[in-house]
Design brief:
The structure holds 2 protein chains of 2 kinds.
Chain A (H helix, E strand, L loop, with lengths): L2 H21 L14 H12 L1 H19 L5 H23 L6 H23 L4 H41 L7
Helix pairs in contact in A: 1-2, 1-3, 2-3, 2-4, 2-5, 2-6, 3-4, 4-5, 5-6
Chain B lengths: L53 H4 L30 H15 L3 H27 L2 E6 L2 E7 L4 E4 L3 E6 L2 E7 L5 H4 L6 E5 L4 E6 L22 H6 L50 E3 L1
Parallel strand pairs in B: 6-8
Antiparallel strand pairs in B: 1-2, 1-7, 3-4, 4-5, 6-7
Classes of the chains: A mainly alpha, B alpha+beta.
């Protein structure tokens, strides 16, 4: 991996952490409702640099993000970690299995689904041992997840196009300044 | 392969460097106001090996006048970004929207549709199932005397007061109390009827440790019955939360909707309980 790629990954990680923190400032209609904007960055990283880089970004986001907002090693951290890892794994799996079939939107949807399922499972295992309650909430949470991840996926489509316009052409050019 | 070094608000035509081995500097300035009245659609499209994403952007006000002279062997992206300073916005929006949809594959849409349908179905099933398990609890003098399923039509005399359950609704048919406000309240589908003189509380509640329906806490689209948030409101307690109507003081057992072990923001739905302003259940204290 070239130095420039490392720099870009660092930048992407910073974006992810920043989005993660900024997102908390958005007034939320429901206490557990989140857009998951940082997943846009994870998705972009996956598409540009592959699974390992994406997982790295996720880890940086989960750890650094939780330290920044003060939830490190707390319950929210556990859920965040579970969701982040599962979401990244799912996105990478889908992307690897069927790279031609799905674009960023589909990958984002799959990621959000896995993310939410993992969070619900973790919530059940760690905090709320009431299966009925979890089962009752889950369709609603998953539904919200579909909506937000669809929006995120469209963001990612948009960004990928922009990056292709600007970035990838530069990437392939021998540019003395870069 | 091509670097598009765009110079903002230039006029008219793209001076494309043409045949420099693979690296074409598209120094164009796709100025909307200038020479191209939308007619000019990317003269060089033919030779760009297919990848040029011009299509979307050029629908904008100032179309791309780029004479992207052929030989750059592949990917030249003249798309949405290729806007002169003047009409950057127009181009960026109209172009990006089209190309945005273009960047979504059929499988993506299919997955979106499937997931939407599945989760909507799940929500319907959950709320339906919860509603089916609702029951009518009749308490007299603070003791729960009867627990009857809401779904089964029934009629019962609790001692001076006849309660009728029919079609998932409950009413007090007759009552031996002075004002008969409980009778006048008529049918209820949720909430409670309270008769103070006879010390009788008739409540409709969910069975599974869930708070009774409250429209107040309902998320968008939730219409009272079994909203997930309300479910989460009492995740551990078996007895569920508090109907607003219970403020009449009739049931000492209810201690509000706060979850015993609710751990803050972490657990989805574990937060909040029945919101303080959770009303919308038309309870009436009668009698």
């Amino acid at each position: 991996m070239q130095l420039r790629d490392k720099q870009r990954l660092a930048l992407l990680a910073a974006f992810a952490v920043a989005l993660n923190a900024l997102e908390r400032m958005i007034p939320s209609p429901l206490p557990w409702f989140k857009f998951g904007l940082a997943n846009i960055i994870t998705l972009l990283t996956l598409l540009m640099y592959g699974f390992r880089a994406a997982m790295m970004i996720t880890m940086v986001r989960v750890f650094a993000g939780s330290i920044i907002v003060g939830t490190f090693l707390g319950p929210a951290f556990a859920l965040s970690l579970a969701g982040g890892v599962a979401g990244t794994l799912a996105m990478a799996a889908l992307y690897r299995a069927m790279p031609a079939a799905f674009g960023p939107l589909g990958i984002s949807l799959a990621g959000a689904l896995a993310h939410n399922l993992a969070q619900l499972a973790a919530a059940h295992l760690l905090f709320i041992r009431n299966t009925d309650a979890i089962l009752l909430v889950s369709p609603f949470i998953l539904f919200i997840g579909v909506l937000t991840s669809a929006v995120n996926g469209l963001f990612a489509v948009f960004l990928m196009m922009r990056l292709k316009n600007a970035g990838l052409s530069i990437q392939n050019t021998t540019c003395p300044k870069c | 392969m091509s670097v598009d070094a765009r110079a903002g608000a230039g006029a008219g035509t793209n001076a494309d460097a043409g045949t420099n081995g693979g690296t074409s500097f598209d120094a164009g300035a796709d100025a909307g106001t200038g020479a191209n009245d939308g007619m000019s659609a990317d003269a060089g499209a033919g030779a760009n090996g297919g990848m040029s994403a011009d299509g979307g952007a050029d629908a904008g006000a100032g179309a791309d006048a780029g004479t992207d002279a052929g030989t750059n062997g592949g990917t030249s992206f003249d798309a949405g970004t290729g806007a002169g300073a003047g009409d950057m916005r127009v181009d960026a929006f109209s172009g990006s929207f089209k190309s945005l949809i273009g960047g979504v594959k059929p499988c993506d849409w299919a997955l979106l549709a499937i997931l939407l349908a599945a989760t909507l179905w799940g929500m319907a099933a959950v709320s339906g199932g919860a509603a089916a398990s609702a029951e009518v609890v009749i308490e007299v003098a603070n003791k729960p005397l009867y627990r009857l399923p809401l779904g089964v039509d029934n009629s019962i005399d609790t001692g001076g007061l006849v309660v009728e359950i029919k079609g998932r609704k409950v009413r007090v048919l007759t009552a031996e109390c002075p004002n008969k406000l409980c009778v006048k309240q008529g049918w209820i589908e949720h909430g409670a009827i309270i008769c103070v003189p006879l010390k009788t509380v008739i409540r409709i509640k969910e069975r599974r440790g869930a708070a009774p329906r409250g429209k107040g806490g309902a998320p968008p689209g939730g219409k009272g019955s079994a909203t997930p948030r309300d479910k989460g409101g009492a995740p551990t307690g078996g007895e569920g939360g508090l109907t607003p109507g219970d403020k009449g003081g009739s049931t000492p057992r209810d201690k509000g909707g706060a979850p015993p072990g609710g751990n803050g923001e972490s657990a989805p739905g574990g937060k909040g309980g029945a919101p303080p302003g959770d009303k919308g259940v038309p309870d009436a204290i009668t009698g």
